[in-house]
Design goal:
The chain is α+β, with helices and mostly antiparallel strands. It has helices at about 15-30, 45-55, 75-80, 100-110, 120-125, 125-135, 150-155, 185-190, 235-240, 255-270, 305-310, 315-330, and strands at about 1-5, 35-40, 45, 85-90, 145, 160-165, 175-180, 200, 205-215, 215-225, 245, 275-280, 290-295. It is built from twelve helices and 13 strands. It is globular, with a radius of gyration of 19 Å.
């Protein structure tokens, strides 16, 4: 097939997207596909530029402040040569790459692409809307409020500690664990700096679990154990040895099946397609809570979805081929 891998983008998750794009381009080329590298802030890359861009590494610390990159997506989608493609593989994360914007542009242009459609992407990216749909589908999720909220309301409905995070951001960028009221203002300011609304969410102690969905079937459940701290934040995700990721998780059969069942329920409730990854907390009393769903999870060498797939015998090459097939069958 003739495939364009679209990566990079304008969001603060650009570094992760570049790493995903590099992995996907490599595996698709080794499988014999004709692959074009397309960076969302530059356009179609010439071979000499491709190596330079794809060799960028993921910084193991979050950006000191939100980063802005100029988007060329409308021009890219209008590029006549891309309309001759069989498929665009979306390796973008966050922002307009994951909130339904690029999906809508590609739908209007009639270009097949991987992942969920514009509606599903938008529903999942808005954490407030997604959590409402979790509850409507019968899947528990931590209590939450949207800023601004009074301290009295926060203490009554959420208690401390509380998670403060942007309503539409991935990779835990802008997220803080707030243990006392005096920390709230700074945490809200940090989250607000990433744009959009700010969510305050009840902190659920316990085990951090994750599971991938592929072709409407749950993959292996994994457990993430940060080396320090209580949350799987940006540093824990991308710093070597900052977290232990165990696939499959050491869970009993009942809990494993419950996580997989809930992941499928929320995948369908959000009207998602092809693949996704859902994150959960299992509290000390056995309660299972869905935190959020990622519609374009990372596809780097150390990303959780490939590990979830590998634990059930699906190689990274097969995972990418099945993601491509899902895009073509839409």
């Amino acid at each position: 097939m003739r495939i364009a891998v679209l990566f990079g983008g304008t969001s603060t998750e650009r570094d992760v997207s570049v790493a995903s794009g590099s992995q996907v381009i490599g595996v698709l080329r080794r499988a014999g596909h004709e692959v074009i590298a397309v960076e969302a802030s530059r356009g179609v890359l010439l071979p000499e530029d491709e190596h330079q861009v794809l060799s960028e590494h993921i910084d193991d610390q979050p950006p000191a402040e939100p980063q802005a990159f100029e988007s060329k997506l409308p021009a890219i989608v209008a590029n006549a040569s891309l309309k001759k493609l069989d498929l665009i593989f979306l390796a973008m994360h966050g922002g307009i790459g994951e909130d339904g914007t690029i999906q809508g542009l590609l739908e209007l242009a009639g270009i097949p692409y991987t992942g969920s459609d514009a509606l599903g992407s938008a529903l999942a990216m808005d954490k407030d809307v997604a959590k409402r749909l979790f509850l409507a589908a019968g899947v528990p999720t931590p209590a939450w409020l949207m800023a601004p909220a009074t301290l009295e309301k926060i203490e009554q409905q959420l208690g401390f500690p509380v998670i403060v995070k942007p309503n539409g951001q991935g990779s835990t960028l802008g997220l803080s664990l707030v243990t006392e009221p005096a920390m709230l203002v700074d945490a809200i300011d940090l989250a607000a700096g990433y744009g959009g609304q700010v969510m305050l969410e009840q902190y659920i102690p316990g085990r951090e679990l994750t599971v991938g969905i592929l072709d409407d079937a749950a993959l292996a459940v994994g457990e993430i154990i940060p080396a320090t701290g209580k949350i799987f934040d940006y540093t824990a995700k991308y710093q070597t040895d900052a977290a232990q990721e165990i696939f499959p998780a050491d869970l009993n059969k009942t809990d494993t099946e419950r996580v997989q069942e809930f992941a499928l329920i929320v995948h369908r409730a959000l009207k998602l397609a092809s693949y996704s990854r859902a994150d959960f907390r299992l509290d000390p009393d056995g309660g299972l809570w869905c935190l959020e769903v990622n519609t374009l999870p990372g596809l780097t060498a150390g990303s959780l979805l490939p590990k979830s797939a590998a634990a059930v015998g699906i190689s990274f090459a097969e995972l990418c081929e099945r993601i491509c097939s899902g895009g073509l069958s839409r």
